């Protein structure tokens, strides 16, 4: 018998055996989606890939998954602490488009990249701007329970009302208050956060709505509380995001739910933390520093394809690290992942596609690894053991296909593609081939350098030559 699924729950800081809240029912999964004022970088996609693997592992275990992902298209300010400008409005200023156009464009770009990475679609993809009424109702409940107060620039959550505020992040609230150096303004405590912000004077804001408190827009955290509650209920199975969400965004989502349910003594305290499991993906680093959109230059999926990498090689790279450890991105690591992926694809396709059942012992060992808090690095190692092992070839293929339901590398669907060589590149290669045959070595070297500059590598053969795209190793 393989080991049952256990997952590391940030709330309890330990591995816990997973069982759905509704036996036999679907698993409710909420994952915080992108803020669509710019492209997502490959760091963001590391988190979305971890969530995709989680979903595939839940399915492997026989669960149906009701997966809700939001699109943050309003309210996320340039500072997580309720200051600065709305990222959407800033994006609009930067691009000369409306905030609505910016949101639509980057939402489409996000969805297209998710497809390139072979990420399964969520059951519900919901936009914050489509759920303003739900957010207003949520805030009204919080206010009715006495957990909110108004200032001249918005409505704030009163974190002093909760004796366990910040438990998810093990925040030292007293210490934070004592050591506080920044001016609070009208906020009562440093940890208090905006539920609703009033539009600034001057009518410059593009995204704004009427509310019982005044014209304005929702704070960032309320959208996730409101949409999670709408689609998954007050208390559901799993909530995910990146590790940066632990101290602020998820902490505040939980506080909001506690505030809204404060007048429901029949609901156990333990069931007011929104989700039974809180899972967090660790960051992708670039040169050992956090990769962030605000850091200026950042890598997109398109940046990888432009250099000749298959987006699935990035998926493979993410599988080589456990989701609870940070991963430092380097081009060498991506090279190795692309090579691994190519070998696995070719190895898979060299095996005959004949009716066979996966090897039971290997499938059990695989389940042991993925059910141990998604140990994909070890699961991947097992795939290599199968590929290089001595099971009957059709069984090897069937076993790998079964594993790939979790990897999502699309092994069976892959077909070797002929590389298209642009005509001008072909012309240089022909000229170099002729120079080489004529023993004009200097000219041949010059043309090779020209090919390099155009991004191609030429290999000489007895009967001619072959061309492949160069993989640049360094930025
Ligand atoms: P955002 O678009 O900023 O709302 O972020 C979308 C998701 O990406 C969130 O779950 C973040 O926690 C996550 N994220 C942001 N930066 C990184 C990073 N460098 N590595 C992994 N995940 C990240
Ligand atoms: Zn969220």
Descriptive report:
There is one protein chain. With 475 residues, the protein is of the alpha/beta class. Helix content is 41%, strand content 16%. It has helices at 42-60, 87-95, 99-116, 132-144, 173-178, 220-232, 246-260, 301-306, 311-319, 331-349, 360-370, 376-388, 393-407, 423-437, 441-453; strands spanning 6-9, 14-17, 27-31, 65-71, 124-127, 148-150, 154-157, 193-198, 216-218, 236-242, 275-281, 284-286, 289-290, 327-329, 456-461, 464-469. Bound molecules: adenosine monophosphate and zinc ion (ZN). Zinc ion binds at residues 32, 224, 241, 249. Zinc ion is lined by residues 32, 224, 241, 249.
Q: Could you tell me the mean pLDDT? A: 92
Largest sheet: 5 strands, parallel
Global outline: globular
% residues in beta strands: 15-25%
Radius of gyration: 26 Å
Amino-to-carboxy terminus distance: 48 Å
Q: Roughly what percent helix? A: 40-55%
Task: Supply the number of helical segments.
Answer: 15
Q: pLDDT below 50 for ≥5 consecutive residues: which ranges?
A: none
Spatial sequence of strands, sheet with the most strands: 5-4-3-10-11
Secondary-structure content class: alpha/beta
Can you count the beta strands?
A: 16
Q: Name the ligand types.
A: adenosine monophosphate, zinc ion
Please tag this protein with its features:
binds adenosine monophosphate, 41% helix, 475 residues, 16% strand, binds zinc ion, single chain, globular, alpha/beta
